[in-house]
Design brief:
The structure holds 2 protein chains of 2 kinds.
Chain A: E1 17-20, E2 28-35, E3 41-45, E4 48-49, E5 56-65, E6 76-80, H1 102-107, E7 132-133, E8 138-141, E9 144-148, E10 154-158, E11 173-177, E12 188-196, E13 213-221, E14 225-233, E15 239-246, E16 253-259, E17 273-283, E18 288-289, E19 301-302, E20 315-325, H2 337-345, E21 348-350, E22 360-367, E23 373-379, E24 389-395, E25 402-405, E26 409-415, E27 420-434
Chain B: E1 2-7, E2 10-16, E3 21-24, H1 30-40
Antiparallel strand pairs in B: 1-2, 2-3
The chains are: A mainly beta, B alpha+beta.
Chain lengths: 437, 51
């Protein structure tokens, strides 16, 4: 980077004179400053002032005389008459925030630089690191959903294959192909994350002021070649297919893709879907489009991209996924574990007690006889995007309450059929709330 | 298969029976959208067991 901040502007006049030795044959001499006009200097030969344009011309740092000055020592000199442009080095403590360009400001840790949540693949509330069959609408890790038109073609797991992650990361999301499946024109297998409208509204997409974004990630595959993915809007009528290249098998490679913001279409600005990032693992021709251009279509990947599901046992690992404003991929936005977990909890919360013989007791009481409706209100640790769907199974004590959820919590109620002690507590099953995009 | 969820005489949600998931009647909930798609395909939910 040649300078910090805005482009240096014209500075005040600084005097100066260049001296040259005439040879009798040389007509061109090199100046110490670039000038733009013959009027920016005064050229003197043997103490006679020369006429601009007639006696000499200027091109950058070169002055060319019409006739070669006679031989002599310092008998040719050039005096500078105009202001000059200087490259300056700011002294310590003089550079302020407003002097930094947008990309640099982003890299200095403006809040929520990375619009992708759990991009370093650390949070895994659902599976705690266990492998899953990556069918449609399943989550191997928080916020990263598998979109699949066919079942049982992939498995997915945090740190699948136990390879060493890229420097600076401890986790990755790993997919393994379960067969050699030949995709049809309408098939799709992608790793997807929906970015909430609230978290991308500042990009001004869908307007003339749409901001450019840069996607970056680390990827490692047993396959090489051209791979693809896309950005789409919630209504899937705007999409931007992109490609990237994996050059060496089983080696972590860093990929960056800069995408000019979409000036058309409708893009979310509230708690609905905003941008949907998809990383292709095999997408049919109907859902693939020309890379590097916005289209009014539902393209999940780029035409001709490699199909991971097409090779039995093929692996595809990814981490450090970042989508940020600007034209530069900057260092990964390492948020604290607690911050990242809270961000994930806006979309999914797990209340299952996974400890051996453990119970998560919420409420205990006693009713004298049946016919009573018992209820309690459970506040979520993090307010959710919308009222979540709540899954309860394996409830302990024979009580199966019904929830009535809101964004801040849920009411659990139970119609007591008979008198006695009751306890709302989770057992060996699951208890979670989902408000995913 | 889905089942109607009632509370105090009113429908307040849907239950996805296979996973025992309680789904609120909220447009932006993807589980509810999946239910609406299932309904549009001509399926009919089970009636509520109790109110």
């Amino acid at each position: 980077m040649p300078y910090i901040g805005a482009t240096p502007t014209t500075q005040s006049f600084i005097s100066g004179t260049d001296y040259f030795n005439g040879t009798g044959s040389a007509t061109a001499f090199t100046l110490t400053r670039a000038v733009t006009s013959v009027n920016d200097i005064q050229a003197v030969v043997n103490n006679v002032v020369q006429v601009p344009n007639d006696a000499y011309t200027i091109s950058g740092t070169t002055i060319t005389f019409t006739s070669a000055p006679s031989a002599g020592t310092s008998n040719v000199y050039v005096r500078y008459l105009s202001t000059t442009t200087q490259a300056i080095t700011p002294s310590q403590g003089t550079v302020g925030w407003s002097q930094l360009n947008a990309d640099t400001q982003q890299d200095l840790g403006i809040s929520f630089k990375n619009r992708i949540i759990n991009g370093n693949m650390v949070i895994d509330q659902r599976n705690a690191g266990a492998s899953i069959t990556a069918n449609d609408d399943t989550y191997a890790l928080d916020r990263f959903k598998t979109a699949a038109s066919q079942s049982s073609k992939l498995t997915a797991q945090q740190n699948a294959g136990s390879v060493t992650p890229p420097v600076g990361f401890s986790r990755y999301l790993g997919y393994t192909s379960s067969s050699a499946y030949s995709i049809t024109s309408t098939d799709y297998f992608t790793i997807q994350q929906g970015i909430e409208g609230f978290n991308m509204a500042d990009l001004n997409w869908g307007t003339a002021n749409a901001k450019t974004v840069t996607l970056s990630f680390w990827v490692r595959s047993s396959l090489t070649g051209t791979f693809g993915g896309s950005l789409r809007n919630a209504s899937a009528d705007r999409s931007y297919p992109f490609t990237y290249t994996i050059n060496t098998a089983n080696t972590w490679e860093y990929e960056t893709i800069t995408i000019a913001g979409d000036t058309s279409g409708t893009w979310g600005a509230t708690n609905g879907g905003g941008i949907y990032l998809g990383i292709g693992l095999g997408v049919g021709s109907t859902l693939s489009g020309t890379a590097g251009a916005w289209a009014g279509s539902n393209f999940r990947s780029a035409t001709g991209a490699t199909s991971v599901v097409g090779t039995n046992g093929a692996t595809f690992y990814i981490t450090g996924v970042q989508l940020e404003v600007g034209t530069q991929a900057t260092t990964f936005d390492n948020r604290s574990y607690g911050t990242e977990l809270a961000l994930c909890e806006r979309y999914y919360q797990d209340f299952t007690d996974r400890t051996a013989n453990g119970y998560a007791g919420f409420f205990t009481g006693y009713v004298a006889s049946g016919g009573y409706n018992i209820s309690m209100y459970m506040t979520f640790p993090t307010a959710m995007r919308i009222a979540p769907a709540i899954t309860i199974s394996g409830w302990a004590g024979g009580i199966q309450p019904s929830p009535l959820s809101g964004t801040n919590g849920t009411a659990l109620y139970y119609a007591a059929g008979s008198g006695g002690l009751f306890t709302f507590r989770s057992g060996a099953g699951v208890f979670n709330a989902s408000a995913e995009l | 298969m889905y089942k109607i969820q009632m509370f105090e005489g009113q429908q307040v949600g849907i239950i996805r029976v296979a996973t025992n998931t309680y789904i609120p009647l909220v447009e932006g909930n993807t589980d509810y959208q999946a239910y609406l798609k299932w309904l549009a395909e001509g399926n009919t939910p089970l009636p509520a067991e109790n109110t």
